[in-house]
Amino acid sequence: MSSPGSPRPERSSMSTMEHIKRMFRGETNFDFIGRRNLWFGLSGAVLLISILAMPLRPAHSPCSPPLPSFFKGLNCGIEFKGGVSIQAPIGADSPLADQADLEVIESVREGVEEVGALDPQIQVASLGDDRSVIVQTTELGTVEEQEAFQDRVRELTGATVEESSPQRIGRKWGGEISRKAFFAMVVFLIVISIFMSWRFEWKMGIAAIAAMFHDLIVTAGVYAIVGFELTPSTIIAILTILGYSLYDNVVVFDKVEENVAAFAATGKMTYNDAANLSLNEVFMRSLNTALATILPVAALLFVGAGILGAGTLKDLALALFVGLFVGTYSSVFFAVPILATLKEREPRFQNVREKLARDAARRTAVKPAVVTEAPGVEGHEIAAPARPTAATPATPRPASKPRAGTKKAKRRKRK
What we know:
With 415 residues, the protein is of the alpha+beta class. It has 12 helices and 6 strands. It has a 4-stranded antiparallel sheet with strand order 3-4-2-5. Strands 1-6 form a two-stranded parallel sheet. Helix 4 runs antiparallel to helix 5 and helix 6 runs parallel beside helix 8 (232-264). It is elongated, with a radius of gyration of 38 Å.
């Protein structure tokens, strides 16, 4: 608390709009690297929640039966775990024609459970005034049970065999799809590691792979929390967002490499300062690119899937929507801080940091005043002679002796 006589701190006259304009012009000086512990803590908390949302699986497939957990885990479609699916229209003379969507779901659930369907997943799709019901269940034991399941759905909806579209996917085929998707993901990450190491260096490759794993785990965790179905469209969307995350990392790393060569390698800045300068220069570019990409994806998710009821779009749109947000965050707040942490341990950048610290200490050091004590008297100082000022003129120097030649001239004049 300041005293009454002390001056009050000046308030910044810059408005919020001016701050926003400066941010969009790239004139900010935010300490991204200095707050790396905050970003690491935030990312660690989100990763922990995402991992807890996806229970550990006893088998290799992420769609295997989960161990007990607070969350349900990933809701894999029949393409991955196998099962039976049927889509049937709800006609005008159907027993379900006058029921609301929730009532249709409950009626169909009770009907198919009577014929042995376990944990059926039911959706009602609407297109104008026409409605249809999509029912999926795990793989049934015999062909007779599968036909009974399909006949029960047709009976409930009033659809004919020609109007309905059943689909059966075996468990082995679903496991094969899971293995191929996992193999494709591993190959993608290996190729990216080789490319980043060749284009930049291996430490940038490590930072980029860590950021992509971060994006992948967080996106999968969101899927597990909201309960959206994991389909082949989701895998395509995840590969898309990993490519976007890689693009953003390449842009940021290229700027870091440029500033490090200009400042850190020449001893003008530490690696942390050069990386921080790079992030301030490209932050708005990354943000604007992300916003321009997220807006149409948001329309696809909230308008297409939410308002218009295009349920087949929501799996793709959710992965893109979450992945774009997380990918933009990880490229700035996760990948570059990891890179700076690795690079600052190199001897050459440690030497630069120590040299700059010594130079700063030398510039700010204050030389102590020399104090002379009177001989034999402790605690008494002898004042240094004052320099002449305008108020105290300097003592005139004694006139110099005349030259010998001048004296002889005076004697000649006397004679």
